[in-house]
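Open question from group meeting: does this chain pack into something compact, or does most of it stay loose? Before anyone orders reagents, we agreed to write out a predicted structure and look at it together. Recording both the input and the output here so the notebook holds the full record.
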Amino acid sequence: MPSPTTAGQLITGALRLSGVVGKTETPDADDFAEGLQGFNDLLEILSTENMAVYGSALETFPTVAGQSVYTIGPAGNWNTTRPVNLNWPYCTFNGVDFPIEMINQGEYNDIALKTQQQPIVEKLLFINDFPLGRITLWPVPSGIISIFLNTDRVLTNVTDTTTAVNAPPGYALMYRYMLAVLLCGSYGVPCPGEISSIAASARANVKRANRVQRVAQYDPALVGSDPAIWQTGV
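Structure tokens returned:
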């Protein structure tokens, strides 16, 4: 992203691309206000798409002995930015790391003894509530251990047009063209086809750059502890 880039510069570029203002005109206060609202809407939209957001944060939170449910977010049990999604959690006990399986509500409901306690957490249920997310751990931690969560970043809203906007390469183009598409809708003007096309291409390029390689896994219960080599079948 070119530096320095401000929210006002991105909004001006988007308004010009949409044809709301001329290429040499400066937006007025009402146009900047509309653009700022649109830009924050865009940041929220992108924050719900994990591959549209660069990187993730590894955060550590302590458990409470005998407590299974924790709120996460500003002023929650685990005080941090409210996550949109969690990935690859693990816990540490006696200096050893243990992976935690992410499960859904149905899988948690199937657990017969939800009050079972032990030092090591094996499963985690994340409910994307608002304003605070809710995390349920199983078995219930019997002591204080550290839970490590990889949380997807949330793109921070901007407060005014002078706010500096910093992001990896490709984001300025994506912001400008996607905002132009949104503003065309706000002003009720037709969106030029090439603007929509560039916006979609820029979005795809950013997601491609943020893509994380997936690792193939198998269920040992299905294949046993010594799975066959797929090339030979033995």
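Observations to bring back to the group:
The mean pLDDT is 89.
Residues 52 and 92 are 30 Å apart (CA to CA).
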